[in-house]
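Why should sequence recovery work at all? Because a backbone constrains its sequence more than one might expect. Tight turns favour small or flexible residues, buried strands favour hydrophobic ones, and helices have their own preferences. The token representation captures these environments compactly. In the example below, the structure is given first.
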């Protein structure tokens, strides 16, 4: 597998873990708590593998940016959480930043 695949797995693990944090109710609910712990373990393991070939700043920017976007979407559907216009603009700027890094930056290629 390559760094991008490891990063994708890390992002999925982080999104799952973060999405279950609320359901864990402060780690008082067993099953959601287990999902959170396992999800973050998967996340950090695969993120460490991704960073063997992806610069840490670029990897973290992509990981956190995509994670914010996906968690916001999941929170909308799972918990009915809505975002106001400034929040949507901010998330749009994050998305734009991730796209600029991936499409135009030479920092991610080495």
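From this structural description, the recovered sequence reads:
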């Amino acid at each position: 597998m390559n760094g991008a695949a490891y990063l994708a797995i890390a992002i999925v693990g982080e999104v799952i873990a973060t999405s279950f944090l609320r359901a864990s109710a402060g780690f008082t609910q067993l099953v959601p708590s287990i999902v959170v712990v396992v999800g973050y373990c998967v996340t950090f393991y695969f993120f460490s593998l991704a960073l063997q070939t992806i610069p840490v700043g670029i990897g973290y920017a992509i990981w956190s940016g995509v994670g914010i976007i996906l968690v916001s979407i999941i929170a909308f559907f799972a918990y009915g959480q809505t975002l106001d216009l400034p929040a949507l603009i901010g998330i749009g700027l994050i998305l734009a930043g991730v796209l600029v890094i991936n499409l135009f930056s030479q920092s991610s290629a080495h």
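A few observations help interpret the result. The chain has one domain: 3-104.
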